[in-house]
Amino acid sequence: MRIGFVGLGKLGLPVALATELKGHEVMGYDPSDSVKEIINTRKLPYMEAGCQELLDKTNIKIISLRELVAFSDIIFVAVQTPHLPKYEGITRIPTERKDFDYTFLKKAINDLSEEIENQKVKKIVIVISTVLPSTIEREIKPILSSYVRFCYNPFFIAMTTTIKDFLEPEFILFGVDDKEAVEMAKTFYRTITPSPFFETSIKNAELIKVLYNTFIGMKIVFANTAMEICHKIGADVDEVSKALALGYKRIISNQYLSGGMGDGGSCHPRDNIALSFLSEQQGLSYDWFTNLMVAREKQTEWLASLIVEEQTKSNLPIVILGKAYKPETNLVVGSPSVLLYNILCESKIECEMYDPFIDGKMPDKYFELPHIFFIGTKHNEFMDYVFPDNSIVIDPHRYIPHSDNYKVISIGQNKSPILIPKVIVPHARV
Ligand SMILES: NC(=O)c1ccc[n+]([C@@H]2O[C@H](COP(=O)([O-])OP(=O)(O)OC[C@H]3O[C@@H](n4cnc5c(N)ncnc54)[C@H](O)[C@@H]3O)[C@@H](O)[C@H]2O)c1
Hints:
By secondary structure, this protein is an alpha/beta fold. It has helices spanning about 10-20, 35-40, 50-55, 65-70, 105-120, 135-140, 160-165, 180-190, 200-235, 235-245, 270-280, 290-315, 335-345, 355-360, 365-370, and strands at about 1-5, 25-30, 75, 125, 150, 170-175, 195-200, 320, 350-355, 370-375, 390-395, 405-410. It has three domains: about 1-200, Rossmann fold (3-Layer(aba) Sandwich), CATH 3.40.50; about 205-250; about 260-430, 3-Layer(aba) Sandwich (Rossmann fold), CATH 3.40.50. It is about 40% helix and about 10% strand. The radius of gyration is 26 Å and the shape is globular.
């Protein structure tokens, strides 16, 4: 295929060279003099494994945007979306938070789109630059020509191993709302790698990309917390990490990766609290464990605020279904459902709880009168309940079937997102 690259920087150039290696004809457009110099002199000023060897023998040329549009079957856009140096993590976190700078990406897309419009040809344009969720809809879609078949395809690559990471990815992430474009993109990727292709909405893809990176950041903070504890109490961090890495079924697997209620049970919350004590006692530089517990509590407060918001609108009585800390048990120790109940009570919100494994038969009123039912525990039998007409069912596990007779709110799958959220339950002291 004939593949064009808009932006031949630290991501675009290695990927363009790897694409050429797989037998495609590749051309690029980049206004930067330093990029032209790299292509002309064939000297790479940065270290990138395998890149210099490919650059030595490449046929890639920098051509005009007009030529690139005419040439390409698919155009990748790898233009920078920078942050100011103060947001790069090399200084303390600034008090003010900022989005990335999309000026370069918007200019590149605008110019490209105009050229596609001029040539009046359908073109597949695949953006690979990193953006925050909702950016494509807000900043990019309004400037796209109707001839553009658009996809968002962020990469999970690390600098210095760009070529290897592009040719051997864990998965290929595609945000699309254009079936024609994605079929062509799949045909292209089949020539690059057998890795799985994950197709989703553009907004999901934007979020997956940045959450993937923050997950890694979270693991590193966790590992460094272990290192500091080990250093302070005289344990061996490499032994500790070696053992934790053997927990591939739960720690490194996809378990515990679905959104829902907070962590619960007789061990996890208790261990976090005990470790926050150790953290304080040892004077750890950052108390990761309190951080986990604060997050768990704040997230439960947020669920409480959703309940209160529905009650304010409907005036229905509230019942939390499930007291147990996990499905199909009657154990309530460390239960996030009970935490939710306590947070509501703390704000003087009237609320009842019911658990079939603890309280026996469900009271008749829950079958007869409309309520706000919050599904605190993902017990199987709640799936079969026929809730009273006009009830509101709030389901953080997203497994309760929807019905015309009552409203089911599947948390995390909101079809009409609230852009400016209201916090109704006051924050608990932590
Ligand atoms: N470098 C990486 O390893 C990496 C990994 C994953 C994601 N990303 C993302 O990819 C994007 C690009 O990153 P990078 O490191 O390659 O940046 P970079 O600054 O090295 O390269 C961007 C290139 O785009 C060119 N450019 C700017 N405006 C242009 C325009 N209007 N038309 C054509 N070209 C234009 C620039 O001249 C530059 O050569 C960023 O959003 C980044 O976050 C980078």
